[in-house]
Amino acid sequence: MIEKPSHVRIPGAPPADVDTMPLLVPPIDAHRLPNGPYTVAAALLHHLVPAAMERSDDLVAAHDIEIRAAAPDLRDRVPARRVGLGDGLTDDERILVPAPRRTLRIANGLAEFVRAAAPPGSAVVVCNAAEADPTDTELLAVLMRRVPARTLAITVCADGPAHPADERDAAELWPVVDRCMREGFLHAVAELGERGMGRTAEGSTRWWRFAQRVATALGGLGRTEEARALWERVRRASQDPAVHAASAYGTAMLDARHPDPARRDLGRARAWLNQAIAISSVLPDPAERAFKLGFDRNGLALVEVRLGRRDRALQLVESALALAGELGERHPVHRMVLLANRAQLLAEAGRVREALADYAAAIRMDPAFPDYYLDRGNLWFRLGRHAEALADYEAAMAAGPPLPEAYYNRAELRLATGDDAGALADLGRVIELDPSYLNAYINRAGLLAGAERDEEARADVTAGLLLAPGNPHLLAVLGQLETSARRFAAAEEAFGLALKAAPELAAAWANRGVLRFATGDPEGAVADLSRALELEPQADGYANRAVALRALGRTTEAERDEKRANANR
Q1: Which of 562, 564, 537, 539 is nearest to 549 (CA)?
Q2: 3-class state of residue 9 by DSSP
């Protein structure tokens, strides 16, 4: 029997027979010294991109963002097809920091490129994986999950040759840190930026530039206390008012944006933002004052939103936009962010026409930025304008590397319009791109259970519960599956756990009502179905309650429910 190729992880060094493998490239040293993020990706791309361009420019063009981000040495050969507003702006105008999940998007795009470009039957050996930058660690996991071994068999070895210490001085490290910040390679920013801080005078301009990026990266990575300590260190090292304003803002955002809502301290965030605003309002340069004051007011608007004071938040954003009007053509990204923030607040206030106008203006400023297509698409969806929502979701998909949220939102739209098959396909795409996307498992499990594809639904429930043990939505689907399998005790237990965790979950009440009828308890069924209908009136709920009512001889009530069921279909 011919042994099928497979991906392999080895805890030690590369195997002795490495030279006998059909290697696509010589063994790749993944150590993050000296090349930093995407060392593995760059080695693959330098081999695959030229050959792919000889066959067709289309494949390379479709992945221009990912290739240019991972292999900057190829930028001269790979033209930028999708150019963002931030490209080419000055340092102080690039205010958007890519989210940590951007590297997952890049990794997925690169995996799709490699899958299409690699000659079938090839192999790759990677060593020093234990010392790889997190971008390469993530990429290797995505490649091994998404690229079949029969196309490219990947062997990942933890160990490899040793490397000397990084001797680059601050001047050499700065452009690397700056590029990593622009691309969203936050782990590298934190590591290399701290190294740069140690190689320049504390409190100097260059030290501050390193420190600002390191603290921002640490906050983005959820390393909140390290970021807070660094902002405090900055304050102790500097007497520059602008530095103190920026440090106050950065510290405030650690509280306002803490990943755990229970650990957000909005009062403390407000205090820091008030300090930032007080300093920014007296900066001597009019343009710097207008920009920083508007930036700080926008941050305070976030705190007001999270305190439920949306009217006050809207006033702050509008005042920031008025200040932005004093900047002329400078700081376009700042204006774009403010327009989108105002659009969101206007939409929540029911001022839909104005919100759509602001979203349109923000999108015109940067058609390559996907987030605002998603936000506007969600607004169109809430308005029942499904064609417009679909167009925006698909524009978000086209704007950059694979975006799981866009497929998830399109799945919800397709589900609302009765396209269950399309919704299932999109949810499958979400899970392919991001196996940790819990809501995709929840929705797909429910759809599959409804289609009586119980085995597949159970697989999604199992995968979802591994991510979120005790999730009530998944437990409700599990109860439905156990009912279908006539394992009634297990179904009762699942529904009980679901309702204990989420007493307002209508689906759990409704499906437990079905279970109780099936086990000879029509009165219990009526009680549960009635509670479900109080929470979420649905045709199936009325129809099921009508059956239970008839079983109890309550014919008049049953007929009333049957009419309601027909009216709600």
Answers
A1: 562
A2: strand
CA angle 270, 207, 284 (to 5 degrees): 55
The string of DSSP codes covering 239-276 is --HHHHHHHHHHHHHHHHT-SSGGG--HHHHHHHHHHH
Peptide bond into 161 cis (omega under 30): no
CA distance 201 to 237: 10
Q: Which residues contact 561 (CB under 8 A, 6 or more apart)?
A: 542, 543, 545, 546, 549
Burial class (CB in 10 A: 0-12, 13-18, 19+), 455: exposed
Distance CA 478, CA 22 (A): 46
- Local confidence pLDDT in tens for the 569 residues of the chain: 456 789 999 999 998 888 888 999 999 999 999 899 999 999 999 999 999 999 988 999 999 999 999 999 999 999 999 998 988 888 888 899 898 899 999 999 999 999 999 999 999 999 999 999 999 999 999 999 999 999 999 999 999 999 999 999 999 999 999 999 999 999 999 999 999 999 999 999 999 999 999 999 999 999 999 999 999 999 999 999 999 999 999 999 999 999 888 999 999 999 999 999 999 999 999 999 999 999 999 999 999 999 999 999 999 999 999 999 999 999 999 999 999 999 999 999 999 999 999 999 999 999 999 999 999 999 999 999 999 999 999 999 999 999 999 999 999 999 999 999 999 999 999 999 999 999 999 999 999 999 999 999 999 999 999 999 999 999 999 999 999 999 999 999 999 999 999 999 999 999 999 999 999 999 999 999 999 999 999 999 999 999 999 999 999 999 999 999 998 87
Neighbour-count burial of 338, counting CB atoms closer than 10 A to its CB (0-12 exposed, 13-18 middle, 19+ buried): buried
SS3 annotation, 417-483: CCCHHHHHHHHHHHHHHCCCCHHHHHHHHHHHHHCCCHHHHHHHHHHHHHHCCCCHHHHHHHHHHHH
3-state secondary structure 111-138: HHHHHHHCCCCEEEEEECHHHECHHHHH
Terminal CA-to-CA distance of the chain, rounded, Å? 56
